[in-house]
């Protein structure tokens, strides 16, 4: 692992923990946690984001922490389009918790397993042209994320080659969720299930369960991974033993969101925010204020965005729909100059000024604006009642892999997210723990309380449970 890879992957770990901690305050997370606590026998081995006194079995902890990570759609996004960290990190934290003390991984082993899980997702998606664009059929984390989780857990469990092959094949049988559940409370379950089911695939393989070794091959007449991507065309990969192997993350950086919504919203929000500044200038020149005065000046709003049905929602009725609405995010930025965590509260959704603006929005889909996170743009054109036209355009928002967040900005986001549930000293401890992860001798709780989220009182039971399960 090169310094670039370590730097980028630690940024992903930090951001993922932060959005997971903030996500532990959401209603959908609480529902998932109640389900696990009430429907399954207690097995207090692995820790849960934002719940100091709560522990679950490793697979259920991976599930609820995955749900927390995606509960506000605040987690990282890669290209081709998927949310890679949320499917992998919760599973690895749960596996680390369940391993006996004499088998705890080093911090560097933990990061290597994490990067293996990310790499598998990126490689699989690059075998399909369909996967390059915003998805229409399957939500990508439920497909490649499940296999990424299985690969990461297989690596952390030190499975041998045939077991790794079976783990991936088992995971393929546990993959897939339809895009129709986007913008609902069920979408966060996609990430939770990817983490959980990938982990279960690795554990099943570790005790001898077998599956087809040809699932990832392109076999005529037999649908393997091509069931998810019809144009799937696998290629041989460079062996890790050969020189010249590079992780994809070294060449394709990660996208980190500044506010909790679908990645596509960041283009229109930034374009609309630039128009907001122009609007304020117009109002100031006329000696007028903000708020309703902004609404009174706007006659028509035109959005030029990619064609993608599930994020074209003219009048969202819930926070989850609002996070997947070009119209809502553009109007919020026009009204407030930015989109924040609080933009999706029930009170914010029902503001009369916002509803008035939504009623004036039209949408166009230019041919040169594809539904592709690497090539799309967002354009907002506002016509004022006096006839003046104000325009804003965003080709690359701040946080995109072409314009990544600085370390300072990423830590500011983390402090805000983690600070919603943790005291300041714990938040700073987490930042320090992740930064030093590659130098950590082992992930014993006494060495890494902030990262592995466990306690000495649980070490003995954790070791005993792990020996039984493995």
TrEMBL record:
GO MF terms held by the record: aconitate decarboxylase activity; protein homodimerization activity
Record Pfam families: MmgE_PrpD_C, MmgE_PrpD_N
Entry-linked InterPro entries: MmgE/PrpD_sf, MmgE/PrpD_sf_1, MmgE/PrpD_sf_2, MmgE_PrpD, MmgE_PrpD_C, MmgE_PrpD_N
GO cellular component: mitochondrion
Domain MmgE/PrpD N-terminal: 3-226
Coiled-coil portions: none
Domain MmgE/PrpD C-terminal: start-end pairs: 259-437
Any one of the GO BP annotations: innate immune response
Gene3D superfamilies, alphabetized: 2-methylcitrate dehydratase PrpD (3.30.1330.120)
PANTHER family per the UniProt record, alphabetical: 2-METHYLCITRATE DEHYDRATASE-RELATED, CIS-ACONITATE DECARBOXYLASE
Family: Belongs to the PrpD family.
Entry protein name: Immunoresponsive gene 1, like
Organism: Hucho hucho (huchen)
């Amino acid at each position: 692992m090169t310094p670039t890879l370590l730097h980028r992957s630690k940024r992903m770990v930090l951001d993922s923990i932060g959005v997971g901690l903030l996500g532990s305050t959401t209603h959908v997370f609480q529902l998932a946690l109640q389900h696990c606590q009430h429907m399954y026998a207690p097995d207090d081995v692995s820790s849960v984001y934002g719940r100091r006194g709560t522990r679950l079995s490793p697979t259920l902890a991976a599930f609820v922490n995955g749900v927390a990570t995606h509960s506000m759609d605040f987690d990282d996004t890669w290209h081709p389009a998927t949310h890679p960290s949320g499917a992998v990190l919760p599973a690895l934290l749960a596996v680390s918790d369940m391993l006996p003390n004499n088998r705890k991984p080093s911090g560097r082993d933990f990061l290597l397993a994490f990067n293996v899980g990310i790499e598998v997702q990126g490689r699989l998606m690059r075998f399909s042209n369909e996967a390059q664009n915003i998805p229409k059929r399957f939500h990508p984390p439920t497909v490649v994320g499940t296999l990424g989780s299985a690969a990461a857990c297989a690596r952390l469990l030190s499975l041998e080659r045939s077991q790794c092959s079976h783990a991936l094949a088992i995971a393929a049988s546990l993959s897939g969720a339809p895009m129709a559940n986007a913008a609902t409370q069920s979408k966060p379950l996609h990430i939770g299930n990817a983490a959980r089911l990938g982990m279960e695939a690795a554990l099943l393989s570790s005790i001898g369960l077998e599956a087809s070794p040809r699932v990832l091959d392109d076999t005529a007449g037999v649908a393997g991974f091509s069931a998810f991507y019809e144009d799937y065309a696998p290629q041989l990969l460079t062996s890790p033993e050969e020189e010249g192997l590079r992780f994809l993350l070294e060449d394709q950086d990660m996208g980190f969101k500044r506010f909790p919504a679908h990645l596509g919203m960041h283009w229109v929000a930034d374009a609309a925010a630039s128009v907001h500044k122009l609007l304020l200038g117009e109002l100031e020149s006329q000696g007028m204020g903000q708020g309703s005065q902004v609404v009174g000046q706007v006659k028509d709003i035109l959005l030029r965005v990619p064609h993608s049905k599930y994020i074209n929602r003219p009048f969202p009725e819930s926070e989850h729909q609002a996070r997947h609405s070009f119209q809502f995010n553009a109007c919020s930025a026009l009204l407030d100059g930015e989109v924040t965590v609080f933009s999706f509260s029930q009170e914010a959704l029902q503001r009369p000024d916002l509803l008035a603006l939504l009623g004036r929005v039209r949408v166009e889909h230019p041919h040169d604006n594809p539904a592709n996170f690497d090539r799309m743009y967002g354009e907002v054109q506002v016509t004022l009642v006096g006839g003046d036209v104000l325009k804003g355009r965003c080709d690359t928002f701040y946080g995109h892999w072409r314009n990544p967040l600085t370390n300072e900005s990423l830590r500011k986001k983390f402090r805000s997210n983690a600070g919603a549930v943790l005291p300041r000293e714990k938040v700073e401890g987490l930042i320090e723990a992740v930064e030093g992860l590659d130098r950590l001798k082992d992930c014993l709780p006494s060495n890494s309380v902030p990262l592995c989220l466990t306690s000495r009182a649980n070490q003995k039971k954790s070791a005993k449970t792990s020996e039984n399960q493995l």
